[in-house]
Amino acid sequence: MPAPLGDIRFVWPYYAAAAIAYLIGAIPFGLILARLAGKGDIRRIGSGNIGATNVLRTGNKTLALLTLILDSGKGALCVAAGARLGPDMAAFAGAGAVLGHVFPIWLGFRGGKGVATALGTLLAAAWPVGALACATWLAVAALFRYSSLAGLAALGLAPLYAFLFAGPPIPILALFIASLVALRHGGNIRRLIGGREPKIGQGGDHPPKSAHTTGLQGD
Predict the structure, then answer these.
(1) Could you report the per-residue pLDDT of 148-175, keeping only the tens digit for each?
(2) At a CB cut-off of 8 Å and minimum separation 6, what does 156 contact?
(3) Is residue 177 a contact partner of residue 95, using CB atoms and an 8 Å limit?
(4) Domain ranges within the chain, ordered by starting residue
(5) Fewer CB within 10 Å, N or C, the chain?
(6) Residues 69, 73, 74, 76, Cα dihedral to 10°
(7) What's the whole-model pTM score?
(8) Integer distance in angstroms from the first to the last C-alpha of the chain?
(9) What is the rounded (10 degree) CA torsion for 3, 6, 10, 11?
């Protein structure tokens, strides 16, 4: 009977790569930078999220930009390192990085929404796919001013972009990432439908205590 995870002699490097990438992806740069800048716990500000959009709500654009660069960069770094051992290894590393950002062990598995890390991962895995996803994010954000909607649209279309412009295993990676990000945006989707989702630059619509104690609510 075949092992459910494959022959361990051959597959363990892939799971090891995913585990290492998970730990890197789990580094909460938004939280760290906000504390270093004297902004306190970012989880008690705005929406309570640790990503660049919520860091922007502190009023510090430089801090938000650094968070965006570092969050996307950790995904790209993991993919680039994994790619040295082949495309499958790169895909495992990319999946691990996004999973780490969304469910970081350091923060009790309550992390960010994963959009920046996902875009960095896709850019490194297949730049045409990542570029199209980034362009989609920019277009939707410019039109509607909702960061969450932009992220959902960009990563929701990423599997299609991957199917059209990249070979295996990129479509599978893009589908995994899209599913994970959609799962983390459940609250955002409900607020978008109800017309209660804050636009880019606005504060979150939940009290900080709720966002911190019951899970990250905003984008």
Answers:
(1) 999 999 999 999 999 999 999 999 999 9
(2) 178, 182
(3) yes
(4) 8-213
(5) N
(6) 160
(7) 0.87
(8) 45
(9) -120
